[in-house]
Design goal:
- This is Pyrroline-5-carboxylate reductase.
- By secondary structure, this protein is α/β, with parallel strands linked by helices.
- It is built from 13 helices and eight strands.
- An eight-stranded mixed β-sheet has the order 3-2-1-4-5-6-7-8, sandwiched between helices.
- The two termini are 37 Å apart.
- Bound molecules: NADPH dihydro-nicotinamide-adenine-dinucleotide phosphate and (2S)-3,4-dihydro-2H-pyrrole-2-carboxylic acid (A1CAB).
- The site of (2S)-3,4-dihydro-2H-pyrrole-2-carboxylic acid has 4 residues, from helix 8.
Length: 284
Amino acid sequence: MSSTDTLATTRLAVLGLGNMNGAILTGMLAAGLPADNVVATTRSADSAAAKADKYGVRVISNEQDPQANRTAVAEADVVLVGVKPKDIVAALRELSDALPADAVVVSVAAGVTAKTLGSVLRAGQPLVRTMPNTPLTVGSGVVGMAPGEHVSTEQADLIEQLFSGSGLVVRVEESLLPAVVATAGSAPAYLFLFAEAIAKHAEQLGLPRADAERMAAATVKGAGLMLEQGDQTAEQLRTNVMSPGGTTAKAIESFQADGLEDIVARAMDAAAARDREMGEEFTA
Ligand SMILES: NC(=O)C1=CN([C@@H]2O[C@H](COP(=O)(O)OP(=O)(O)OC[C@H]3O[C@@H](n4cnc5c(N)ncnc54)[C@H](OP(=O)(O)O)[C@@H]3O)[C@@H](O)[C@H]2O)C=CC1
Ligand SMILES: O=C(O)[C@@H]1CCC=N1
């Protein structure tokens, strides 16, 4: 089956429609998922109205209807669960007996383990843990996916196809999801921080703030597109910018003298450690 066919026929329940599930849904709708195939839920009624307007899908709130999550999943093939890690166990527990037996539950929650999630689902319910990132919203995201033991090959392929219209999908063992959080899930924020820092300091160097922000954004985008082409490594692309005795060499020497690689490594270790810690903190 082509990914267009898959998108056309899959019935999707989206539990929680915040930053992450919103990005995933935007990517899937842009890739061809019909809006009529989607039922989403939020906690608050105001949020449901705003999100229905924003995404053009049916959104029901738990505030207005305490059965909203159960209603949303009743006819779903795929249930995309994007509530906060502290809320996911309770959310799944209250709807587990409303899930069709062959519906695939896809968790995007950081940390919370398949063992914990499986313990509040009915025995044998297919479950896929994923770690996506928000650039899915512009069709350039990353998703690490770890299919669980009750997921058939066809179901794993279906989930991969649903995501692959809006980003790179990499299958990993569940034990590697903390590494995926550090490398992709959290990583857009590192690059946004870099863009923020560049724009702030460009202003100190005399550029108007708005121009500095546009230049930083276009530079991050351009560098990303060059990296994505894949014909040269990041190291080669960096070296191409570094004219001997020039300006870039001075900047890179300054980063290296200040220990940028160690700074990045410590930040990634902190993200991965927090992911593992959340797995122990949020249990059934
Ligand atoms: N943000 C990111 O970049 C990434 C986030 N994640 C994961 O995504 C998940 C969501 O994070 P994020 O999108 O940032 O969070 P948000 O706070 O933006 O969104 C959470 C959504 O869940 C809704 N919600 C809360 N409780 C319930 C419930 N019981 N039933 C249905 N909906 C509910 C909220 O409703 P309301 O709209 O009314 O507030 C909101 O729409 C987390 O588990 C996080 O670990 C994973 C990778 C990246
Ligand atoms: O910060 C978080 O916990 C989530 C997971 C990865 C990105 N955002």
